[in-house]
## 1
Amino acid sequence: MRSLIRILGVARELLPAYAAIVAAGVLVAATGLTVPFIIKAATDEVVAGLSGGGAGVPGVLWLAFLLLLTDVANTIISNIGGYLGDVMAIRLRSILSRNYFEKLLRLPQRYFDNELTGTIISRLQRSITETTAFLNMFANNFLPMLLSVVAALVIIGWYSWWLALLMLAVYPLFTWLTALTSRRWQRLETAKNLEFDVAGGRFAEVVGQIRVVKSFVAEPRELAHFNGRYDATIGLTREQSAYWHKMDVARRGALNLIFFGIYSIIFTATISGEFTLGVMVLLIQLVNMARQPVQSMSFLVDASQRAITGCRDYFKVMDEPVESAAVSADAPPPPTLRTRPGEPVVVFDNARFGYTGDVEVLRGVSFEVQRGERVAFVGESGVGKTTMTSLLLGLYPLTGGKLLVDGRDVTTVPLPELRAQVGVVFQDPALFSGTIRENIAYGRPGASEAEIVTAARRSHAHGFIIALPGGYDAEIGERGVKLSGGQKQRIAVARAMLKDAPILVLDEATSSLDSKAERLVQEGLEELMSDRTSLIIAHRLSTISSVDRIITLREGLIEEIGTPAELARTNGIYAELLALQASASKADRKRLQRYEILG
Ligand SMILES: Nc1ncnc2c1ncn2[C@@H]1O[C@H](COP(=O)(O)OP(=O)(O)OP(=O)(O)O)[C@@H](O)[C@H]1O
Ligand SMILES: [Mg+2]
């Protein structure tokens, strides 16, 4: 319940709307309550008429006309209230969704490592839809009903206070009986939502990577997994609903007994002359009016519990610790460096890091990269090269030691500033659906056409782009599926070029290219690196032979640091790789020779 109130508090700007809805609710209740009184008057009029007195036919017609007026007023006001409720609900939904997305954008990388995209989406859908649907229903139906109940009770009390007391006892009794049911119901609801979330998460992942699924003919497996989750929800719903309805029989049974008492009292009091016939008719109507919400209370409780569970899920995300201040609409800070040429721009000082508490990926890494220097990182797959890139972007906090970028500890630099200084070509090019132009311009929103084309030319992407139907306006599909691996990589390089950050990180930037294309892109990259500090990760040694220094890593530690020439002479990883490459090309030559002989 607290979380529901908190939801209302989130959208304070909707206060006038709430107030208007409450006002409409009061008017609906008031017009609704007038009806029993008019019918009472009509009954008395009819009774009087039958015994020869009263105002006769004109009197009852006048009362019928009054009924018409109240009904029309009630219809109009409740529809205005309905309109206000609908608009309030959609505004609330838009506010909650925006806040949720904004919050997600501020959550640290670690959150996304542990959640499936589809799960995040299905949770957003459910929590917000159910909460707003409930509030909409509450505003439009339950609020007028609750107001009528209070008024009806007061009026009943005016005629007979013990009848009102008996009526009043119904609510706490019913609420108590419902609360008894609630805990188990909620536990089952949470279990059900978990199944939906897991199924939804996998669903999105499978659709996103349908090519892999098809290639492994994994459709039946995926379908079975999906089915399994939904089957589980059927079982859970059976249990939940059976329990709910059993309890509802008990609850309503108790109510039926109380109403038996209430009607007996009204009938006997009328027959013994304590109430007139009109009063009896009035009281029966009021009791029915007050009884209505009790009957729909199961529905109300059901909907409100769904909403409460939804709110809880919502606030679970909203209460996650964020990594940065609010997402601002301001342009990102200019990518400049304070460090002078020759001074260290990137300093890893005994840096330690592990994704999980028990496994350390970096176990005390220290090195410096000077401004304008080109440094390559070499090490086996999984040694932690990409991890260092992530640390440089401030995606994860170090677990020990220090990391300075541009002379400042990364923990103290505002993240947008840090990220503006570092341009990355990721190992996995990760493009967005949309056009090629939009994807390149992602590096710098508002870039001119000429700048985009220049970046594409320098990354040697221009040629293939203009050959595509649509050219720069060609749609590339989700994550760029319509492009080849090498084409995606060149777009990613162009995007980084446009960002024009002073520190450049190339994580296997040319790994998907063939040797010829690689040489071409390499030229572009050379140009890009010329006046910048570059950290290069590459498996192909040809890419890194021209760097200033090479740093080799082994088992989370630095093994060697030196120029390519120096490291070629030691027996470290780099020398090893050089030897391997030499022997490989020798073997290749041999194979070629053999083909030539055979040919
Ligand atoms: N998000 C993550 N959560 C948990 N562990 C991770 C995560 N990313 C990487 N790792 C682990 O951290 C280690 C280092 O990974 P990293 O991606 O930095 O390797 P790499 O040197 O870039 O390898 P490669 O040359 O194959 O790209 C690996 O053992 C990997 O399993
Ligand atoms: Mg990597």
## 2
Amino acid sequence: MRIGSVSITHPITLAPMEEHTNYPFRIVCKQLGASLVCGERVDGSDVAKRDRRALKLLHTTSTEKPVVGQISGHDPHVMAEAARVVAHQGFSIVDLNFECPIRRLIGRGEGGALMANPPVIAKLVAAVVAAVDIPVTLKIRSGPDSEHETAPETARLAELAGASAVDVHARSVAQSYVGGPDWTVVARVKQSVKIPVFGSGGVREATDAIRFLKETGADGVAIGRGCLGNPWIFQQARALYQGGAVVAAPHPYERARVLLQLAEGEFDFYGNHLALKRLPRVACYFAKFLPDFASFRNEVQKVNSFQEFKRLIRQHFVQ
Ligand SMILES: Cc1cc2nc3c(=O)[nH]c(=O)nc-3n(C[C@H](O)[C@H](O)[C@H](O)COP(=O)(O)O)c2cc1C
């Protein structure tokens, strides 16, 4: 499948998630079979100013290509400049976020706030398309709330403005992350445009990903919370999609190996202080299956170095 000039080999992809889809996690998802990975949303105005923290979030290397960098904002000039930075950082695709439900963004008329105004979204898409040579995509919701389904119109206008693909989170902005997704909106978007349509919402198991593709007719599925602590979902869903044998749940050794790779990546990426702060949350996603999870959760809070973490993993995962 092609997204503008970018080819991807199968439709199982990683959805962007703030605080989660950093560079080390994306590498893990890629190695375990995601065809396309996406970095978390970064404020376009910070990116345009080349703010140090924003550029850190937009770190990428050729190892993870093809890779998507995502920005949000409401000013066409600022978004165009931010998109140039994303392209310059080495991302294969720039994605515009019109889905984020957090109050700070909504208050500024950005992210999900724009689902109430599809023509403004189209203008932003056009400005960014004119600014960069890489494909431009957009991430939307079903609409601002359950009464107003603006996704199909938004996708149509964005396609006319030059978007190369659209990704629909099958919940409204008002819903935030609560309540079940309505996959039928993805099917309606698919019927409205010719560009590839991706979707996300409620995929927890590999079989959900396949069901999502079948029921919606979407070209791709983006896996969100279902891959936290379980990046093997990409391998499993890819195998099901390609008609191969069912891939079994990973052995505890494999879980330990991947968790250690991710943790080491985070220590390299963030440095000791921040990596240690993040460690309990990251590790607990992977450790939930342990019979002695409660004691693991307790002990991981006290870890002071990567070496100590390795010892803890050996104790709990490798017996
Ligand atoms: C913690 C968290 C952070 C998220 N951050 C982003 C983000 O930065 N950009 C974005 O487009 N979507 C973001 N999303 C939405 C996901 O990409 C995805 O659409 C959604 O989680 C799909 O639903 P699911 O988790 O039920 O599968 C986030 C979701 C979660 C749970």
